[in-house]
Amino acid sequence: MIDSWLVDERVTLDTHTCFVLWQCREPQYVNELRKQYGEEIINFLCVKKLLLPVDKVWEQNNIRLVELECTTFCNYKCEYCTIPVIPRDHCVMDMILFERIIEKVLRHPSIQWISLNNYGEPSIDPLLMERLDVIAQTDLQMVFNTNGSRLEPFLDRLRCMKKNIYHLNFNIPSIDRDEYHQITGGDLMMVLKNVKKANDLGITTKIIVNGTPDEVERKYIKFLHMFQAYENVEVYKWKTNDRSGILSNKYWQNIKNSYPLTGCRNLVNYLFIDGKGDLFLCCNDYNKKFVYNNIKNGEIRDLLRSPKLIEWKKIIFGNKNGSKEFICMHCAEMRESLCASYKLNETAKQCHSFPDNG
Known about the structure:
- The protein is an alpha/beta fold.
- The protein contains 13 helices and 11 strands.
- The chain is globular and about 65 Å long.
- InterPro entries: 4Fe4S-binding_SPASM_dom, Aldolase_TIM, Radical_SAM_PqqE_MftC-like, rSAM, rSAM_sf.
């Protein structure tokens, strides 16, 4: 199986089809490919957008989720988050900019979901109720990530706009009250109260179990038992990462990727916009070192053609090498991409010959 990020599908590939993709790491003439491997396989790969025209490849996008950094601050100090490590000035996105972004999002046909935070806590955003009113007038679905501690005043409003809620996600690293306080600085009881109220109001809710791989596996079953009677709640695992090397505590992963890189869906499926309207590369770019445009400069489809972004795409998808300090060199998601690419290459090497097309 392979994810085609441009068509939102998991595609099943046999060994021969993997071999075709492996061969097409370098540009090929499509008519020659059809002669060699047959119309069916090549047309299939083109339809799934796993093979693309050389002159169009760097313009391809399928933006599905927009993450807005409506606030830069949080009432928690979670040890797996960058905010306590590198505090930022408090910034709140103004409503004029917010409404302008929503208008442009609605004009971009592939976008389905919107999130109101990147690192900040949305429930302490002084303009949250106004933002919810704007979203309620659209068909956008919202991914609402929260620590849940300050959510109670907004739950009735969220209930009234259930059509706009894709998931209400509570990030909960522990269901032991003392351990929870040690990790976050917050009060677990207040969060659990709001989880129960969200469930009782019929809001589709996820509990995200945060932690290192070992911690998540150790705690997951306990979470399932605690929330098994909650009709509208599902429990999910989320293995934390060190945000491309920013965290130096127990979450540090010591990742050292190597070139050439092998691609990342953040560049294809997600759009990240900060409180000033700047478009930045990915969720791990906490310090905004990779800003490539501003939402005020045009429509989203045009902003995504930024020369800066295209150059970074070429690095991220292995067309050229970047510096040792490039953000992806210490990224856990890129390491997974490199491992997946290695497996694909190994599968392709198993195909030493291709059946005669005739």
